[in-house]
Each structure stands twice: as C-alpha cells, then as structure tokens.
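Many introductory courses stop at the sequence. We go one step further.
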Amino acid sequence: MNLYPLLRPLLFSLDPETAHDTTLKLLDIVHRTRMSSWLYPKLEDKQVKLMGLTFKNPLGLAAGLDKNGDYIDALAALGFGFIEIGTVTPRPQPGNPKPRLFRLPEHQAIINRMGFNNLGMDHLLEQAKHRAYNGVLGINIGKNADTPIADAAADYLTGLRKAYPLAGYITINISSPNTQNLRQLQQGDELKRLISSLKEEQLKLQAEHGRYVPLVLKIAPDLSDDDLVHIARLLLEYAIDGVIATNTTLARDQIAGHPLADQTGGLSGAPVKGKSTDVVRCLAAELTGRIPIIAAGGVFNAVDAQEKLAAGASLVQVYSGLIYRGPILVSDIVNGLKG
C-alpha cells in the first residue's frame, strides 16, 4: 500500500530537516508496530556476491539518511540489499549552521551543506551493536571539521579502527563538498598517502579480528577524466575493495535560473544522474571488472538503476529518490531490474 503520495505534501510543507527527522520516526513506528509486511510490497530475491559479501539484492541506501545509525532496522525493513550509515566522524559535531538543506521539487533535487553533523562514532557503534538487521551494513567515515587537512589521515584511521568490528564494509568519504578542503584528499599524492595508510591498517585489523572488512572509496562527480584514471590506478595499486560513484555535485548547470541555485552545498537528485553515470562509465573502462563500482546519483526508478548497471556498476544506492518517491521506490527498483 503506497501512502506516501498522501503524506508527501504534508512532509514537504515542513522545514526539510524537520521533515527528514519526522519521516525517520514514522518509519520507525511502522517497523516497531510490525506494519511493514502490510505496507511494503514483497521483493524478489536478486542476490549479488561482491567483496566477499552477500547482498540480498543490488539496491542499497546511501549514507546521509541515517547519519547516526538510529534507524537501521526501520530502514532495512524497506527491503534494501544493504544499508550504509554515516557519515560519522570520530567526535560528535553539530555540522554547518542552519538552514543547510533545501528541496528543489521542480528538478527532483536537493541541495545540502550539512557538514557531517553527527553524534560521533561511539554513539553510532552503540546503535549498530544493538541492531536486529543481519544484512550488509556499510559504515561511512569522515574527518572532523576542526581537524586540519594535514592530519586528516589520523581521523580516518580512528574511524577505521573503531568501525571495523561491526561493519560489513567501510566507506572512506573524501568527496563531500561541505567540509573545508576535504575534496583535495582526492588529488595526487594526498590520496596515495591516505589510502596506503588505510590499507596497511586494514590488513593489521584483519589479523587482529580474524575477518576481512572491505574498504570502499567514495568520490565526487566533479573530477576530470584524468583524475578518474589516476584514482582508478591507485585503487588497483593498493587493492582497495570498491568505489562509490558518486557523491553530490557543485555544478549548477542543470538547475540554472532556479531561485535556490546559488545556495552553497552539494546538489543531489535527478540533476546529477548523467554526470554520475559518466563517472561510473569512465571508472568501469579503467577498472575492467577488477574492483566493483557502487553507483549513486539520480536513481528514481528501475530504468535509472538499470542504466547505472549497464554503465558498469555492480550495485546501486539511492537517497534523493527515496525523499521524492517514498518507500515504494525500493520495490519498484528491485522488482523492476532485469536478470
């Protein structure tokens, strides 16, 4: 039963952050009252095996929706093949000043400059520890805003060490446009130093915990082809386990003339779809199947998801599509995918 078209006008009448929190609380109520089986359609089993993990289907929830891991079970009940929580930083931080989240319904888009607002790694891990969900859980880690960029690796290493025991995989987020200078970690020697230190630590943790937790890098859609080729070669050189393409974009060409186009922050949703798919295609040509690609950006239906898979992705994530279409999006995509 799809009640979201009735609820959406009410939710969209609220401040976007209030609507976000309200929606998560409603999903939690649905889950706790065991109404999920009545409200959410049944999904076909479309198992995917990658990175030593088994995903019950190729559709996942992107990081950012549940930053603190407070709603893992409620979100898993929607039928996702995997859930990614975070971005989480070693220490709690408030993020950027409000307002920092904007809807552009005419473009099925969102602009955010949240700035990694979260309750910190310890809170997230406590939530993850008590989840009932036994599917693949990704933990997306970042650096604190007050950590100098020169010391960023220390924050990522802290995040990696703490998240390792509870994560199915760990995502290194160096592509948010909302933490000052963060994206420069995607460049040249800085990226090489970061991923080499993280890979070294991953192998130490594998020996310590007796299990291998894959490392995934999340990149921006605003990189040049040369940058993407360089990143792909480093991923191969250091045996990074996967790559997420992409985060939000700073470009505004797709929403030119909109009253909110000048708001700073990352643009997500339908306007980033083509750019993100181009990044997937470029990475796929360079990686040639040696490292899996997780596609994110502008996925609103099964056709969009199929396009990402055809471009070379193995898995797909959604975020903005869920805001605009509601829980029905999950079954529409999973049941609509071919093969």
